[in-house]
Amino acid sequence: MTDSAFPSKNRILVIDDNPAIHADFRKILKGPDELSAGLDRAGAELFGETPRRVQPAGFEVDSAHSGEEGLVLVRKAQTAGSPYALAFVDVRMTRGWNGIETAARIFQSDADMQIVICTAYSDYSWEQIIEKLGHSDRLVILKKPFDTVEVLQLAHALTEKWRLALEARARMDQLEKMVAGRTQELHAANEQLKVEMAERAHAEESLRQSQKMEAVGQLAGGIAHDFNNLLTVIRGYVQYLKMEIPPKDGVKEALHEIDVAAERAATLTSQMLMFSRKKLLQPRSLDLNELVTQLGSMLHRLLGENIAMEIQTVGVPLFTHADPVMIEMVILNLALNARDAMPQGGRLLMQTAGMEIKAEDCRRNPKARPGMFASISVVDNGSGIAPEILPRIFEPFFTTKEVGKGTGLGLATVYGVVNQHGGWTEVESTVGQGATFTVFLPMLAMQPGLASSSTMKAVVVGGTETILLVEDESALRSLTRMVLQRQGYCVLEAASGAEALAVWDQQRTKIDLILTDMMMPGKVSGRELVEKILAETPDLKVVYTTGYSVDTVCPDISLSDGFNFLQKPYHPDKLIQTVRCRLDQAFPAPGQSGPAEN
Ligand SMILES: Nc1ncnc2c1ncn2[C@@H]1O[C@H](COP(=O)(O)OP(=O)(O)OP(=O)(O)O)[C@@H](O)[C@H]1O
Ligand SMILES: [Mg+2]
Are residues 320 and 438 located together in one domain of the fold? Predict the structure, then answer.
């Protein structure tokens, strides 16, 4: 710290009722004025002495003639920012306060000022002074008559002490400020760390959760895939038996029951495929506002009288590339859950919004991605979800509902469908106050023309062409063969890709269409088989089948259900329609390319 940062240390106040004393102090503290210096010089010359060379001490000296006046000057100097460093105070003053009283007042008013009490032997004793003022390191007692050097020395020593005290305090203040600043920085860093740790823990938990869902999804998907094959066989044979036995036969009713049960089982497997992301999507560009509004009118009836439903759609269209049936199912599941959470009635709000998700928003939720997203929120004021079950609600088969009332597949389906659409789901809930589920779907920047849906013919017609049927599941293969043969087709069978190539080599001229499973064990997959054959005969027609999602199996092939693709489990009628439809297509469908054209 520089000296200029401090007030001058040279300011001294003399408080005395005797005007002559003031002149003495000035002479000592400021240095002699011109008149006295001239007199000194003349005296020296007169007595033949060398004139004294007096160095001016350079103090600024002010005078007060009473204690009261002194205190006024002290306060003024403080206010003006140029406080006194030191006061010489006479003890005995005829008017007003005596010196001790004056010193006490100054001490109260100025925390730094040094005071020299000037006293004669007959005035107060040291003990008396101390009794009045207490022990203070700012107080010095100077007995009269005093010596010039003593006064000057005291002035130098005490003003320097005053300066050092001020400087030390300023340093202390500065240090304290630095410490406070650092403490604040540390505190802020600590808070930030806490926030980041919480965010990280949250993100880790979400990641664990989604990994778990992924694993369960894969398991369920695998089971569903096998079930699909079995159900296709069961339903196919039921269909076959129904056609074979006379209409009046009582067995027909039993067969119908089997078919109904198998159909329910197929719905369940299809739900399992949905959350395990193995269901074929039929996406098109759609406005979420429109979808929510249309579905809303239907939901009114479904929710019952005692639930007030409100729909709030954002003013601009929210275009997204999605499968409308699936998204409706998502909303339906959320709305039904909301209804079940409000058995005594309540309020259900469906709200749409469009927003930009920024990179920093994604730190909390690993599923979130930056970009433009459309969202649908389903808000209820029902029972809410307890924090301990919240992490589990998306798990397949997790339900808190009574046996027979809930399968626990609703939210698992929501999770899978939304994920498959490249989006994610968020949930917030307070027990007793309700829950909010928000689904985020990627938004389309522009509104593209609506994709045309499949051009499947409604009538079931057979034919006489030859079909190479490639399927590793023998029961499914026999059923498919039987269905096709009944329609008049000639069917060549192969249980693997390699076997199919052998059949192709021998009978290629006869074959009009290949119906093949995409995923088969062995060296040659359905896809490779088709690639090899098409390399030789590019015009050959192909229909693919799979129980998986094509985007998992062959994301690069453009497939359309009922057109060049059959999603398992398939109904015999659909098999016949698709085969016929494919055989009748003279040219590849618009927009299709690659092997799938055939
Ligand atoms: N809006 C909600 N309010 C309170 N709890 C909810 C809400 N939505 C879901 N839950 C809880 O999450 C659980 C799982 O929901 P999910 O939809 O997966 O299955 P479910 O409704 O029990 O059965 P399902 O939908 O298969 O008929 C529910 O049993 C319920 O405990
Ligand atoms: Mg549900």
Answer: yes
